[in-house]
Amino acid sequence: MTNENERRKIQSVERSGEILDAIRTLRGATVTEIADHTGLTPGTVHTHLATLRDRRFVRKEGGTYDLGYQFVVLGEYVRNRDRLHRYGREVADDLADETGEVVHLVTEDDGMEVILYEAFGRNAVGTDFYIRNREFMTRHLHYSAAGKAILAYLPRDRVVEIVDRHGLDQRTDRTIDDLETLLDDVDRTRERGFARNDEEGVRNVRAVGAPVLDDADDPIGAISLSAPTSRLRGDAFEEAMPARVVEAANVIEVEIQTGDIERTHLGST
What we know:
The protein is α+β, with helices and mostly antiparallel strands.
């Protein structure tokens, strides 16, 4: 009997998740639209929405449901608990101010890329695209500089596992689309200490990324800088910007290490 109840509860949570995903995908929807999108009955959708609304996970305007502001509170909690976000924001801001470009702080979750923070310099392009991109956790690691920097410091079998599970989605004609090429790329990334993205995620945009590592050389995340190919070329793409990004990653590592030491020391007094 307990097992049946547990299965029923799990299925209920899964359905709520499907409904929330449908609302986000449809950018607000009616009960009928959500039912059509998920394949659930309107009655089931309405029951779940009533509970989610009570918990402020959804809000209703007229006949349309949208995600609630409770997610803003929860999202800020998650971000503020993350060490890369907490200690890396000022470094990202400084790098964006110095270079005028877009700087990203990225971490990995279940084999996918999550953008924790972005800083936009005076010459940054594609800001609307980057802002919209935050809404989706569907970015693969293999076509971004930050993602490849993270992959380079994961165990080889973990990289293979990620590719087996999520595939190698091809975003442009330059995206790496086979495992062996990706493994060679991440090997080179680890050897030189930074990754390059040569129009692999977006045409006419290049990026360089460096891992942010803990004391065991495991990746906490990565910092990357993106710019149009017209500006990120030649020595800027090969040496100058990678050196700045690697330096920024090292600064974040020091900030994390000293911050953790300080918190441990204060907590023990």
